[in-house]
Amino acid sequence: MELVSMVNLDGTDEYLTRISGFYGPVEGYDGLEAITSITFHTNKTKHGPYGEESGVGYTHFTSTASPGKVVGFHGRKLDGFLTAIGVHMEYF
Q1: pTM above 0.90?
Q2: E strands along 43-80, which residues?
Q3: How many angstroms separate the CA atoms of 92 and 59, rounded?
């Protein structure tokens, strides 16, 4: 089952500053690790977490802590799971 959530930002002056989340093993997929949770951080608030933040073998990740804004994403999927994600930044 695919779940989709929309993150709406205040279009006038809110922007993404980083992402964070967890990745870990996917049950039933013989060692496959994937993103299990993601949170979107903005200059005003945070949206999320979306997904599972705790589990055996889960590891926390975060994008840059440098001042700037997210201007794009890149990632990888395998067997329908997001296995990697990164951000393109515009630094201040």
Answers
A1: no
A2: 46-51, 59-62, 68-78
A3: 29
